Amino acid sequence: MQQRGFRNAVAGALGAAAVLASLSAAAHHSFAMYDGQKTYVFTGVVTRVSPDPSHLTIFFSPLNDARTAVIRDAAGKPVIWSVELRSASQVALEGVTAQNFPPGTIFSIGLHPLRSGLTGGGRGKSGLFKCPPNTPPAAGKHCDSVAGATSHGESGSLPMPTGTWSP
């Protein structure tokens, strides 16, 4: 009888541990920090890529609408945005790696901005397009309109923006 009680206690503890582990995983993958009601589409220049195992992050300076220069803040420094993608191993299958997106790469992506108002966001299911080297898109356009651009991602298209960002 005591043995059965011990087994039940062990089974209960293992079950509780499994539930806690699944809640932890779900919390880690929550997108609550992003405003899913807003979608911005940026064309920018990569400043660096952080290939963290849990989420690859691309840091970039957005280009102006004329696509001739990066946007700068009031002090004259380039504005830096970040966009979080899925795990480095998952996006590597799409060709998104630090080696394939070195600093200076021009690319376009849609993102859901951080609710906090900081310059960052999550990719969601947006397409990602890389312009050919040293070939920005025409004024007001994105890399998906440039001959020779490459598509990296599951959706294959940029989303329709629901808003715009300005410094």
Can you tell me about this structure?
This protein has 167 residues and is of the alpha+beta class. Helices cover 19% and strands 23% of the residues. The protein contains two helices and seven strands. It has a five-stranded mixed β-barrel. A hairpin with a 6-residue loop joins β4 and β5. About 12% of the residues have low confidence.
- Strands of the largest sheet, in order across it? 1-2-3-5-4
Q: Percentage of helical residues?
A: 10-25%
Overall outline? globular
Distance between the termini: 70 Å
Nearest-integer average pLDDT: 85
The total strand number stands at 7
Write down the oligomeric state: single chain
- Number of H/I helices: 2
| Main sheet overview | 5 strands, mixed, barrel
Query: pLDDT under 50 segments (min length 5)?
Result: 9-28
Label the structural class.
alpha+beta
- Rg for CA atoms: 21 Å
The proportion of residues in beta strands is: 15-25%
What string gives the helices and strands in order?
HEEEHEEEE
